[in-house]
Amino acid sequence: AQSVTQLDSQVPVFEEAPVELRCNYSSSVSVYLFWYVQYPNQGLQLLLKYLSGSTLVESINGFEAEFNKSQTSFHLRKPSVHISDTAEYFCAVTRVGDSNYKLTFGKGTLLTVNP
Amino acid sequence: GAVVSQHPSRVICKSGTSVKIECRSLDFQATTMFWYRQFPKKSLMLMATSNEGSKATYEQGVEKDKFLINHASLTLSTLTVTSAHPEDSSFYICSARDRRTSGDLHSEQFFGPGTRLTVL
Question: How many Cβ atoms sit within 10 Å of the Cβ of residue B111?
Answer without folding.
Answer: 23
